[in-house]
Structure formats: structure tokens, C-alpha cells
Amino acid sequence: MSATATAAPADRTGPLRHTVTRLAAANLTLLVWFWACSVPVVVVASVLVDRVLGVDDAAVVLYARHAAIWFPFSQAIALVALYLRVHVAAGMTRRTFARATVLVGVGTGAAYGVVLTVLAVVERGVRTALGQGWRVTDGFLADESSPLGLLLAELVVCCVVGNVAGLLVGAVYQRWGALRGTLALPFTAGPVFLVFALLGAAGGWGPLPAIAPGPPWPALGWSVLVVALTAAAYAAVVRRTELRPPNP
After folding, report:
1. N or C: which end of the chain has fewer CB within 10 A?
2. Contacting residues for 141 by C-beta, under 8 A, at least 6 apart
3. What confidence score (pLDDT) does residue 207 get?
């Protein structure tokens, strides 16, 4: 009896581990392809900015943040559309799917943020070796004089919220259909823009003004809260989604 009791928790973690492993492997493959394609583009853009515009101190690689947010965002929408039905049909629960996808979404976002931070460090080192400056020209809490930890934290939060908001978008489309899912986009994709505003990067994003400057860590804390609430909303929607038979 004791053997059965001790084995039960391990059995319950099996579907979660299996789902996380499969989804993480797929996301890792796409991450490698994304950066393999993006790095040459960043290098060419940096040369063009230097030679054509005469700007030799811009942190060009940090502009890739937007692609590193929206590319996984679109993946997350497709992930829910493609795998939720398959997951449930295989006899696993919506709760397991929600937990697994949030874990993978957070991990994937963190990985994109870490890679982008490493590339920023490399770009800064190359420019320093060439006798050039390195200046953050996109909207960030961090600047060229900030500690590396602040830049890393900011990039990770930005990339994670893109992943989690994408999951929420996909779940809402699955539960309420195309029309209501589209009408809900200001609320489901909105967390990305809210985090931009909290981190002072909303300039140029329509009606959202940048939050007044101040100490960076409270803004990061509020951004983490936005991520957590978005993940909770996603999990709640997934657990209540009734899967209809596919149209013939």
C-alpha cells in the first residue's frame, strides 16, 4: 500500500513532464532558427546604420526585441490551436496542458531574453574594440550605464509576456471563436503593451503613454504581476474550454 501511495505522485507528473518536454523541444528548435536568421540581419543593419546614416554608437541589436516578442507570440497562438485538441484526445487534462504551456512559455521567453542580452554584450564589446560607443536608442528602462542585470530582467520580462499573452489569445479564440476572439484582442494582447508602458517603452504605440521615469525595479515588479495575471487568465480559460468537433 505504501508503495502504491508513493508511486501515485510520480504518475501524476508523467503527463506534465511529457508535454513540457515535447513542447520545449519544438520551441527550442524554432528559437535556434530564429536567431540563426536574425543575427545576420542585425549585423547588416548595424553596418548600414553606420555607413549610410553615420550613426556608429547605436545598440542596433536591441531593436530585435520586437521580433523576439512577436515571433514567439504568434507561435503561442498556434500552439494552443494545434495541440490543445490533440492533448485532450490523448487522454490528458486541460489542467496539465495549461500548466505545461505556461511553463514552456515562460522558459521560452526567458531563453529569448537571455540570448538577446548576450548579443547586446557582444555588440557592445565589438563596438568598444573598434573605438566606437554603444548607446541604447530604443525605449528601455535600462541604458548604456545601467547594470547588466537590469537589461537582462527587462528583456526577459518583455519576451515572457509576449509568450503568455499569445497563449491567452489562442485560448480565447478556441473557446469563443473567431469573432469574439478578435474583439477580445485589446484585452488578450493588451498585456504586452501594458508592460511596454510600465517599462517606459510605449512611445510610438498609439494611445499608451510611457510611464513617468522613476526607479526601475518597481516597474519590473508590476510587469511581473501583469505576466502572472495573464497566465492565470489563460489557465482559467483553457480549463473551461469545451472542444467542439472539427467542421467537416
Report:
1. C
2. 150, 154, 199, 200, 201, 216, 219, 220
3. 42
What confidence score (pLDDT) does residue 56 get?
81
State the Cα–Cα distance between residues 9 and 96, nearest whole angstrom.
14
Residue that the C-alpha cell 529569448 belongs to: 112
In whole angstroms, give the CA distance from residue 50 to residue 126. 14
Rounded distance between C-alpha atoms, residue 164 and residue 174, angstroms: 15
**Bridge partners (DSSP) listed for residue 135:** 58
Measured CA to CA, the distance from residue 193 to residue 217 in angstroms comes to 18
CB of 150 within 8 A of CB of 141? yes
Q: How far is CA 128 from the centre of its chain?
A: 30
| Rounded Cα distance, 228 and 222, in Å | 10
pLDDT tens, position by position, 46-99: 989 888 877 788 889 999 999 999 999 999 999 999 999 999 988 899 999 999
Q: What is the pLDDT of residues 98-121, one digit of tens each?
A: 999 999 999 999 999 999 999 999
In 3D space, the residue among 118, 126, 125, 104 whose CA is nearest the CA of residue 28 turns out to be 104
Reported as a single tens digit per residue, the pLDDT across 14-27 is: 889 999 999 999 99
DSSP 8-state code for residue 184: T
Question: Of 164, 163, 140, 162, whose CA–CA distance to 152 is shortest?
Answer: 140
